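Fig. S4 source data, part A: sequence.
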Amino acid sequence: MATHSLFARHLEPPLAAETDNEPAVTGGTWAGRTALPLAADFRTLSIQLGDAQQQQQQQRWRRRGVQRVLERSWWRALINEVVPLGTAYRQQAQQESKRRAALDAVAAQLRSTPFHRDTVAEVCARLGTSAATGLDAAAVERRRAQLGRNVVGRRRRVGAQLRRVAGWFFGGFNRFNWVSVVVFFLCWKPIGNPPQSGNLALGVVIVVIICMQALFAAWQEWVTSRTMAAIGSMVPEATTVLRGGRERTVAPTELVDGDVVLLRAGDVVPADVRIVDASVDLALDRSALTGSAQPALGGVELTSANYLETCNMALLGASVTQGTCRGVVVATGARTVLARVGRLVELRGGKPTQTVLQLEVRRLVNALTTVSLVVGVLFVVLWAVWLRQTHRGFMSVSDALANGVGVLVTFVPGSLPISLTLALTALARRLQRHRVLITSLAAVETLGTVGVLCCEKTGTLTQRRAVVTRVAFGDKELPAAALHADGGVAARRLYETAAWCNDAVLDADASVPPAEREPVGDATDCALLRMATRMAAFGGLAHRRLLAVPFSLRSRWMLTVCAAADEDDDARAGPFVLVKGAPETLLPRCTAVQHADGSLVALDGEGRARLAAVQRRWADEGCRVLLLCRRDFGADDNPLAALADRPAALHAAAVASVHALTVVGLVGMVDPPRPEIPGVVDTFRRAGVRVFMVTGDYAPTAAHVARQCRIITAASVDSVDDVFGVTKETASEPADSSSEPADLADEHKAPAPASLRSLESRPSSQRTLAAPRALVVSGPDLHGLSPAAWDRVAAYEEIVFARITPEQKLQVVEELRARDTSVAVTGDAVDDLPAMRAASVAVAMGGGSEVAKAAADIVLLDNSLASVVVAVECGRLVFANLKKVIVYLLPMTNLSEIVPSLLNVVLGLPIPLSTFLMLVINTVTDVWASVVLLNEEPEDEIMLKPPRNPRHERLVDWRLFAQAYGFVGVIQTLAGHVAFFLCLYLRGGIAPRHVFLAFEKWSDGYLGHSKADLARLVAEAGSAHFMALVVMQWGNMFVARTRTVSVFRQNPLWGPTSNPLLLVAVPLAILVALFFNEIAWFNEVFLTGRIPVEFFFIPIPFALALVAAEELRKLVVRRYPRSWVARIA
């Protein structure tokens, strides 16, 4: 080990702030690699393996309501695919349960894998190989033929590629579009007699639409495939293998089970390998899997029953950073841990492949498609059995078929799924302007449903600038500043522990004195190092740091092994141990305490009680309290001596020596809350979003900070003892791992308080707006809680979870989500990954670890929780705006376009609106207005309502259909047909009574008009009908901007709710109408006509009437929110 002074050590380049519970190896280099979203799934899988019996019990509780979803029959699945109401949320649950079942299956397979538990001889015997000579050539060929090549992911065959491309062009609604194309081509030739070029042109137009949708689908799939492509790139290009007793270099794809591989520093592990021989300094970089930048020790011995955490397994994707090893390949290709975790990534790592909103839009399109198919077939059947027999000559075969498929292609708003994606993309850009980076478009919509926000304390709620303010020895408390000039023994020991049991480093700016440089690293380490740099002993001691065991939320302590740099200093030549951590964890391991004068005395019960009282008092004042300890050894009985070059043995001996410690002192540090946090929490509370603190800090400290942040506002705060009547011994006693978790709700819990029972009885929307009680609960209290107990915990409005481990944080998120709550989780370190992956929305800080940002759905680039307020508002806005778009589209694409076809078939009218003009409305004029509506600013009360529950508040329900069809649609349809009949009367003198039931009479000589004259009149009247619908959509566009607020309060021209693009839609629609109706080529091919000038103005009174009627409806809804008008709109 190289000798470093403290000054030099703290000027080294900063290491990653995140740490892991794996043993650290100092002195090793870490080769950086781009973080992949594997670490979160790997961590979750590791937790699954960590406590098998408890996980199985929790899974049984969790699956009680899931089995019904998975056991549906095929016909119920078909109904769910067609009917949009009430099924989107269930399919999302089915997708998530499928991903969870896959995770359980992988965990079960790894749990039963014996290779890490077997001895080297047993592994070789099980695989039929020899650690000394490896496999022979015949065995290699035989196993390769049986198991396949060592390839991560499946290579797509030509057939699979063709099916994928076919899915782009023929999947979804496109299959019906192709049917329409074929029918239109057939109606042109040979059915058409004579052939009508308009049918050919319509077929070509629909082909163009199909190609555009296919390109959009291909782009989406390309984006999704990039993650798996990155996984495949992690496989090394060559590896050294022992075959037939000789070393050979082969491609990793040629490896088989039983191969013996030789690995050295810089090599990438080519498969899952059981280490059978290793150098004492072997270290592995597993950052691609775990997300931790800290190298992990490797060795032959079993160190953990967890297949993913034991030191004798080297997994595919890891790399050797130092040392050498020999290992036996135990899994290749798709059977490796990397490939299995990669398949979980394909399932979006716990997030459903489609959001509820996307599922509802898809089902709406499917349902409308079904209706259009039924109507189109009905029209053709009516023609075949009635019109063809009764009114010969009224409608030819080609006209009947074209009319039927015209209904199919125009009835469905095919642009709606694309509109949803455009809306999500637009809001993602809006969030980016607020320094919020969206990594998943699905997260934008999910934000609108968030009901609970679980926040880390340090860095999220606080400024991440902790300062040591007070110090306590065994007999005395002092302000930290009093020790800065103290050069005594007690101060030196305190400085030594604070500075060397520390992973922070000083900024490398040499122009600034060390005492004024900013530390870089974890907030707690930075606070201790900042204190050490101001002490008189700073830089005066030089040590060799032999080993560092990082702080872990499970152990709650950090350990370093140091030795004096001067080997001639016999008194300090031997290694010694420095430890810092939670007082309640380390105090039971201490036997002596240091007084302020440097003397060491035995630590008795009175001394322990005094230190515990100091901890509690400081914590109640908001201090994070750490206990600093050390252990020195004699020259003859030092278990750490002569182990400096044996990291594995040194690590084991150091961990075993964490007892008989000497208390160096207590330190209390304060990390002030961010100034904006109280206002942010109040904003969330008004919006019905509960903010919970989830932290590893001591409960009193967390409660004090939570009150400063206004997370806790209740006068009284409950604990588990208050709510459930559990004694502290019962709550903190771990369950026997050999038995099922105790059902504390049934055996130990008293009835809930009256305030809590009344809270549970309220609807969720009312519970969100009230905070009668607050709860502070520590991690050990969560052990073994049954679903009934969690129901009571989840009913609280203000909760602080303290002393939480990564497993418990994951449990909190899963239990809250199991209770019909959408949960957002903030995190910035490796330990947060499982909870982030399990959350509905994962939020990472821009200053957090790279792996946390890779696993997050949202990254706050400005590190401010206030940005989440904007994100939640945008999440709610996308739902509100998409609802506006549907109300805008449905009356036009459904009622206003199907009624003309219905009148044509049933009442014998010449078709008032051609199929081509219907397509123009669907694909041109309505698209621009839809995009404009998707960019609407939020209404005033959007953040004053409880969050949307996707299970109960759906995108499309009967009220929306009543609004779209029974109100807006009727007015628009009436206006269009009034324009049609009025144009026939003004231009041709044909009264409406002569148009109804005309059937085959509408031909040459009818009312003195020639056939060509009648065709011209119908074309002009149809264009007038088209123009009337365009003008009506202007009015609909303005009234659809708000749901209950007056359109005059949502000013589109100026102010915070302005949307000037709305005005662009008006001239754009006029240009489109002129383009398709005034150009002679379109008139000839698509049978359109010139729009009479007066019909640009005649529809305007109808549009104004629509606006007035909507304003009256909104007024009634605002004045009488419980009236029947409000209930049906």
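Fig. S4 source data, part B ends here. The radius of gyration is 36 Å.
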